[in-house]
Amino acid sequence: MKQHMKITVLVDEAMISDDDPQFTRSTEEALTEYHVVDTLRTLGHEVSVQGAVGDLPALVSSLTEEAPDLVFNLTEQYGGDRRLDKNITALLELLDLPYTGTGSMGLLLCRDKRLCKQLLSLHKIRVPQFISLPTGRSLQVPRKLPYPLVVKPAFEDGSEGISNASLVYNENALRERAAFVHDRWDQAAIAEEYIEGQELYVSLMGNKRLTVFPIRGCIFDYDGEEGPNLVTYRVKWNKEYQEKWNIRFAFIPFELDIVRKIERICKKVYRVLQLRDYGRIDVRLTPDNKLVVLEANPNPDIAYGDEVAEAAEKFGLSYENLIDRILRNALRRYEQRAK
Question: Side by side, which strands form the sheet with 149-153?
Fold first, then answer.
């Protein structure tokens, strides 16, 4: 395995600025891209940045001419559509270019929250009860739905489309919120059972052998009953909102048997959904210690100081070691395939 490689970092086209296309300095909008690019350069690799541009012939030509030893894939969408993230990796597969992270099949299985939950259920993994709310059809609402329900877009991530208004308590509110999702995001909605309990984030790394990093969670620590109880977009990304409601993300200690249970189930989810190299599983632990899987995140955010990097550091991996291990996990997959 080469010590110093030619690496192309593939990013969303919208992340590239005209005045700094190779990410030589940090910006608030593209922290992950800068952190990864800067770290790869610090590790001694020859790094170039390529945007997943809408001009496919130009993208193919650029990747082919560059002929990198590895593509470090940081894309999350194509042309503004998150449902097309799998197509970018499919293109890399067609070009026979080795790349980091989950492949096109894994991205397909994880992107559609409905398909993901159906598949996990088949493997006896506990998920919230849910219904699909497609666009362009009259909604057939079952009578025995377990209200309250959380209504959200079926194909987004990062808590996009989740607010306090997403929690609905009756059919009228369900229909109203579904219509809002259809109109705002132009895609199907999913309504899933609200699970009482502690929300946890479990970061994993590896392929044949999996490493589970220390478990982090979202802690709501405000006084009174009037406050957020969902990890909404503002809870996750708005610092002022976190301070207002005394919300924090921190490592949570559990008894060893609970930790082993969480690790075992999250490893199973990782393998069932065909995640590769690294990933994050979001779960809720109920008051009676049942684990309910909310969703799986292939290629989660790996900015310095974010969820995965914090968990890796707690485990004993520096940020440089985390990025190095991701690319070496990917290269090892291709070397094993070639044997």
Answer: 130-133, 189-193, 149-153, 167-168
pLDDT score for 222: 78
**CA angle in degrees (0–180, nearest 5) for 228-155-32:** 75
Instruction: Give the strand pairing for 210-212 and 198-206.
Output: antiparallel
DSSP 8-class letter at 158: T
Low-confidence ranges of the chain (pLDDT < 50): none
Confidence at residue 227, expressed as pLDDT on a 0 to 100 scale: 64
Nearest CA among 134, 86, 130, 141 for reference residue 108: 86
**Rounded (to 5) percent helix, strand, coil in the chain:** 40, 20, 40
Sheet holding 70-73, edge to edge: 46-52, 6-12, 70-73
Residue 29, H or E segment: none
CATH code at 196-215+252-338: 3.30.470.20
According to DSSP, the residues that pair with 219 across neighbouring strands are 248
In angstroms, the CA 310 to CA 165 distance is 30
Q: What is the pLDDT of residues 302-339, one digit of tens each?
A: 999 999 999 999 999 999 999 999 999 999 999 877 66
Structure tokens at 119: 């598949």
Range 6-99 has CATH code 3.80.10: no
Ordered DSSP codes for 241-296 = HHHHTTEEEEE----HHHHHHHHHHHHHHHHHTT--EEEEEEEEE-TT--EEEEEE
Q: How many C-beta atoms lie closer than 10 Å to residue 80's C-beta?
A: 10
243 is written with which tokens? 């301070």
Can you give the residue ranges of every domain in the chain?
A: 6-99, 129-193, 196-215+252-338
Spatial CA neighbour of 73 closest among 27, 110, 107, 44: 107
198-206/189-193 β-pairing: unpaired
pTM of the model: 0.94
Q: Residue 162, exposed/middle/buried by CB under 10 A (0-12, 13-18, 19+)?
A: buried
CATH 3.30.1490 fits 129-193, yes or no: yes
